[in-house]
Amino acid sequence: MAEFAEMSKEELEQAKEAADNEYEELKSRNLSLDMSRGKPAPSQVDHANGMLKEMTEYHTKAGMDVRNYGVLDGIPEMKELFSELLDINADNLIVGGNASLNLMFDAMMRLFVFGAMGEKPWGQLEKVKFLCPSPGYDRHFTICETLGVEMIPVPMTKEGPDMDVVEELSGSDESIKGIWCVPKYSNPQGICYSDKTVDRLASMKTAANDFRIFWDNAYGVHPVFEDVKVKNILDACEEAGTKNRAYYFFSTSKITFPGAGVSLIASSHENIKEIKKIMGAQTIGYDKVNQLRHVQFFKNAEGLRAHMQVLAGCMKPKFETVLKYLEKELTGTGLAVWEEPKGGYFVSVDVYPGCAKEVVRLAKEAGVVLTGAGATYPYKKDPKDSNLRIAPTYPTVEELEQAMELFCVCVKKAGIQKLLEQTDL
After folding, report:
1. How far is CA 104 from CA 45, 46, 247, 264, in A?
2. Strand, helix or coil at 129?
3. By three-state DSSP, how is residue 392 classified?
4. What is the pLDDT of residues 403-420, one digit of tens each?
C-alpha cells in the first residue's frame, strides 16, 4: 500500500471518500464492544474454576487454621510458591490481597507518612517527583496524581526506559524520589528490560538517599509467543550495594481471578522489617483462606507455569488477530506503527500524530470503546496525541476481527483527514 503522506491532494480526497464509506458501513452494524481495559476473558478465568471447589483442609503444614486470625505476612506455603516462581527469598516477601495496586499505594503512603530508613517523610517535603516511563500504566500515574506527586515522563526504548535520561534526572534532583517500572512485557508496549537497563537502575547515583524503584512485575509469567528472561531487580540491587532501593510487586490477578487473586511485595530484609512494623497496625493479616486455596490448586510453581501455558493458548489467537489486521490494513500507509509483543496483555499502536483522540472518538461512535487517548501518559497528556493501547484479551476472536476492522478504518479516516488539513496550510 502506498504511503498516504506521498499522495496528492486529489488522491487523498479519493482515499478519504473510500474510508468514509467503509466507516459508515461498519457503523451500520451496530457493534457494541469494550476494549478499554486489559481484563481476562470469562473463558480464560474458567480455567481456574477448579480452585473454587469446596475446601476440605483448612490447615497449613504447620497446623495453623487459616480460617482464624494470625500470620501478618502470608502463610509459608504461599510464600514458598512465590519464592520458587519468581526466584525471591521467601523471607524477603509479604503476601497481600487480590491486588498488587493496593500494595503499591500502601508503599507510597508509608513513604509519605513515615518515610524510609530514617529519611524525612515525603509528605513533609515541599516537592516530590517521580520518573514515569511513557507510554506506561495509567494506574501508576493515578497514584501519583492522587498524592500530588509531580510526574516526569521518560521516553521508552527497546531495552526499557531511556537510562541516559533516567540517570541524568535522578542524579541531579533530590526531589525525584523514584521511578515506575513494568519490566517484562511492559504496559502497553510489551517491552522487556535488558540486563544492562536493570543493572543501571540498580547502580545509578541518585540525589535522593531514599530513591525507590517501584518494580511492578505484573506480567512476569505471562508469555504469549516467547518467554523472555528479565534480570531480577532485587538481585541487581544487592550486587550494586543498593539493596533497599527496590520494591518488587506481583499478583495472580490475571493468573486466577482478578476478583480473588493473591499479591506480594518483596524487598530487602530491612525494608520488609520496616513495612511489617507499620502493617501490624493496619491489619492482622490478608486472606489466608484464599492463599491456601491457591496453593492447593497449583501445588507448586511448576503447576502455576503449566497453567500459564494454557492461558497463553487462549490469548495467542487474539494477539495474532490484532497483529494480522494491523499488518494487512496499515503496513506501508505511514499512518501507524506498532509493537509486536512477545507476551503480556496489550498491543501498543502509534497512529499518525494528532490523531489518537479522533480514532478513539470515531471508534466509540461506531460502537467500539478503546482505552482513552493519552491514558498511557502522565496527566493524560500524550505530546504527540499518537499512542493507543489495544487490549485484546477480553473479546472473542470473532469480536476482535470486527473491532480491528473498524479500528484500522478509523486510523485511516483520521490520518487522511489530518494529512488533508496539512496540505491546506
Report:
1. 24, 28, 9, 10
2. strand
3. coil
4. 999 999 999 999 999 999
Q: Tell me the whole-structure pTM to 2 decimals.
A: 0.97
pLDDT given at position 169: 98
**Could you give the CA distance from residue 376 to residue 353 in angstroms, rounded to a whole number?**
15
* Confidence (pLDDT) at 1: 58
Rounded CA gap, 411 and 386, in Å?
A: 10
Residue 243 has phi, psi (to 5 degrees) of -60, -20
CA distance 121 to 411: 47
Q: How does pLDDT run across 115-141, given as a tens digit for each residue? A: 999 999 999 999 999 999 999 999 999
Neighbours of 7 (CB within 10 A): 18
With a cut of 80, say whether residue 2 has pLDDT above it.
Answer: no
Question: Hey, which bits of 218-303 come out as E strands?
Answer: 246-251, 263-266
> Which residue bears the cell 499502536?
349
pLDDT tens for each residue of 360-387: 999 999 999 999 999 999 999 999 999 9
Q: Characterize 148-179 residue by residue with b for buried, 16 or more Cβ atoms within 10 angstroms of its Cβ, and e for exposed.
A: ebebbbbebbebbbebebbbebbeebbebbbb
| pLDDT score of 424 more than 80 | no
Spatial distance between the Cα atoms of 359 and 351, rounded to a whole number of angstroms: 9
- Which residue, among 331, 323, 303, 258, has the nearest Cα to 97 in the 3D structure? 258
What are the chain's domains? Answer: 4-44+305-423 (3.90.1150.10), 58-299 (3.40.640.10)
Strands 347-351 and 387-390, how do they pair?
A: antiparallel
157, three cell numbers: 526504548
Cα 166–chain centre separation: 20
| Stretch 81-95: mean pLDDT | 98
Q: How far is CA 164 from CA 152, 154, 182, in A?
A: 14, 10, 18
